[in-house]
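In this section we walk through a basic example: taking a raw amino acid sequence and producing a predicted 3D structure, encoded as discrete structure tokens. The instruction is simple. Fold the sequence below.
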Amino acid sequence: MAVPKATSSHPPAQPKPQPGPKPQRQDPDHQLKSELFEALRHLNRGYGVALSSLDRLEAKDHLHALRVFPSGFIASYRNRTKALRARANRDLLRLLAGREEQEAESFGSLGPSRERKLRS
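The resulting token sequence is shown next.
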């Protein structure tokens, strides 16, 4: 004769988490600043790769009598790429600098007089 399986009336040792709102407090990402600057470095590296490729295209084109690209065509792209890189760096660094200003003010570890001494 088969014995029926017994079921436990005891609750599990580890209760299941209840779905609900997540806590509002977020742990600070201590690596965020370095990750942002690393991303900016990669962006600038990408611009450098693009500029290098434009230089190679121009050099290859100069080797042949029948040129593929009109005079000044690649130079125009090079100048636009450099201008875009400069604007992107300016705007992104301004935003990062603004964040640094906010952090410096919020932490307030250095008083205004001490900060002036450090700048001198």
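Looking at the output, two observations stand out. The two ends are 94 Å apart (CA to CA). The chain has a mean pLDDT of 84. In the next section we compare this with other chains.
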